[in-house]
Amino acid sequence: MGASYPTKILLAFRSGGICAFPGCAKPLVYTAIVGDDTAVGEAAHIAGEKPAAARYDATMTDAQRDHVDNLIYMCEGDHTVIDKVPADWPTANLLALKATHEEKASAAIAEAFSDVAFPELQHAVAWVSSQPPATVSGPNFDLLPPEEKIKKNDLSNGSRHTIAAGLSSRTTVADFVAAETQLDPDFPDKLKSGFLAEYFRLRHQGHKGNELFELMCAFSQRGLKSQGDRTAGLAVLIYLFEICDVFEK
Ligand SMILES: [Zn+2]
After folding, report:
1. Which of these, 82, 84, 116, 131, could form a disulfide with 169 (CB 3.0-4.6 Å)?
2. 30 alpha carbon to ligand 1 midpoint, in Å?
């Protein structure tokens, strides 16, 4: 079967786009000359996918085997190593490696928020100028504090941490949106409509809760190359999460 495409996007996002193998740190993104960049890392199974595979666990279901929690993000060479020499890479070690790697990626994102400024925000929302204004209206969550929204959206501690960190750049994003609105009064609506279109597309595919939030995080960084621009994309998403109904009950 293999992991689904959204699961791979989720894994790449949680891994900061970097190989999890100790000492490798290879960035696993192909920087496209035309169009969006492509994640080229592999979603390696921790407990094997098939009976003959490394670390296979007969007690697991296929859904559990292909779940993001049983996958670790690696380059092709290191994926081969962990599967060919499973004695060196037992399940417990890989689970610990995955946890450390994903925590590190999350901490790096949190730290990067303090560097978000207008130039990065400009790159992150360059797509807005070609966006039609929002036509979808939904329930208004303007008055809902972030903590309530987090509860309503069933978000994990990792996502809560990202949101809390992202809110530190909210004043910068708010100032930026105000400045852009001076130039184009439809800017806030266009910005919102771009995120809402993706939000409804993902929801239609059946994604919800934390997974939906993280896929939106990955979406907010699409096509952005530098770490600064990618963090700015995330800052915009978290700003919208706080002020409007991009997320809901
Ligand atoms: Zn590697």
Report:
1. 116
2. 15
pTM check: above 0.70: yes
φ, ψ of residue 42 in degrees (nearest 5): -110, 140
Task: Break the chain into its structural domains and give their ranges.
Answer: 5-105, 116-243
3-state secondary structure of 184: coil
CA of 171 to the centre of ligand 1 (A): 38
SS3 annotation, 77-115: HHHHHHHHCCCCCCHHHHHHHHHHHHHHHHHHHHHHHHH
Give the span between the Cα atoms of 73 and 20, in whole angstroms. Answer: 6
Q: What would the pLDDT profile of 178-226 be if each residue is shown by its tens digit? A: 999 999 998 988 888 888 888 888 889 998 888 888 999 999 988 887 8
Residue 106 carries which side chain, given as an amino acid letter? S
Reported as a single tens digit per residue, the pLDDT across 108-137 is: 888 899 889 999 999 999 988 887 766 555
CB 134 within 8 A of CB 206: no
- 121 Cα–ligand 1 center, Å: 31
Nearest alpha-carbon partner for 16 in 98, 80, 93, 101: 101
Could you tell me what percent of the chain has a pLDDT over 70?
A: 91
Mean pLDDT, range 18-33, rounded to an integer: 88
Cα 19 to ligand 1 centroid, rounded to whole Å? 5
Tell me the sheet residues that pair with 152: none
